[in-house]
Amino acid sequence: MSIGRLPLHGVHESLGAEFIERGGSLVPESYGDPGGEYESARNRAGISDLSDRGKLRLSGKDHLKFLQGMLTNDVMKLGEGEGMYAAILTVKGRMLSDMRVYREKESVLLDLEPGLNVKVGEILKRYRLSYKANIDDLTESIGLLHVHGPLARRLLAEATGAEKLPLDEFGHMRAAIDGRDVTIVKISRTGGEGYDIYALSDALSDIWKVLMEKGGARGILPVGRAALDTLRIEAGIPIYGADMDEETIPIE
């Protein structure tokens, strides 16, 4: 099985990134100074590339009704621009995957741990039956950057020019960075302020450049997985594959 590369692999390489394989892709473990990256994220902000995360979009007449019967949370109550945490279980109630569910205008986006897009996509297609629901894997076509830390909101407000950003966890909105369309989601992946930025993979380079230029003026650094994992563990945030697996019952 070949190991994938992130759309910004060359950019990370030019920044001196040291890579590690996660979920079938090479991702930046650090940029040579994980301690400095941790300090930046803890005291100012950090910018991380999470494009290897799985992304599935469901659409069609019955997509909400279908998901309502497949997931552990009440997706039917979501309004446009809202989101929630959910899981998909075995018939014995054990976890096959967890996910974040984002309600869009005419579709739902599922955010998954790296590599789980294939597994979850296959499960959903197997049980779709007569439901009129389209299931599209956007993992490669849509990239994902994460801005986190005390200055994350200020940095993102400057980059987008938006007067308001989502306030509620999993709340999301459309915006633009350097003329590139993005979806911004408020999500804490490290225990503090955090935002995911979804954009077409071929737009990531321009978006990354803007964030780094505006962040660099404040001493904000790119942050690799070593520092990101430390922050996550300190905050007590579990992830599927490391802290949960198919033997886990959600209540645990």
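(the above was protein one; protein two follows)
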Amino acid sequence: MTPAGSQPEDSIIVQASLASANVLGFEPILDDPSSTDSNVPISLGIPAVTLGGGGEFGGCHTLEEYYNPKDAFYGVQKIFLTMLGLVGVENVSQPLLTKK
């Protein structure tokens, strides 16, 4: 099993993702660290978060697992807004992330 990685709640990448959820009218949820693909970049010191893809889901990795795609388009919008905030938009906003 891959060890779980995490980012501080006040990190730029977490704050950007929370702001994107708020802009779309959602109450963001910060879950406990778990094993996700984000653990690889986090283990290398690269900021990363795992953002839900929208819709409703539950019972992950069980026989009761389900997914309802209703309103799933919000997931893509949230991810896109987070990315735009992090990299900036020319002539509109500065990037939240700094170049290394």
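Reviewer note on protein two: The radius of gyration is 15 Å.
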